[in-house]
Design goal:
It is built from 2 helices and 5 strands. The protein is of the alpha+beta class. The chain has one domain.
Length: about 90
């Protein structure tokens, strides 16, 4: 699962061909062992949780980079390597 972004200690990952469990475009956010799965469309949590302050950062980042994330999702579904996306701290 490639890491597509990293900011403020949060790793953002996207699995290849990961359409069966959650059935919609999503990312995995990991912060110090806490993992949450977020919908790209609306930033809603599909599974897991992050600390509230990190959750807010991830939701803001998704909103800023929604088009890039959807393009990366299409690549990942096709088994291709998604592009890196800038973090909030860059």
């Amino acid at each position: 699962m490639p890491t597509i972004s990293m900011f403020y200690g949060i790793l953002i990952r996207m699995f290849y061909r990961d359409i069966e469990k959650h059935h919609l475009p999503h990312i995995h956010a990991d912060y110090q062992g806490d993992v949450a799965v977020y919908s790209i469309a609306d930033g809603e949590i599909l599974a897991g949780q992050l600390p509230p302050n990190k959750h807010k950062l991830v939701v803001a980042w998704i909103e800023i980079h929604k088009d890039d994330l959807l393009a990366d999702w299409q690549l990942a579904v096709e088994g291709k390597i998604p592009f890196k996306i800038k973090g909030l701290d860059q």
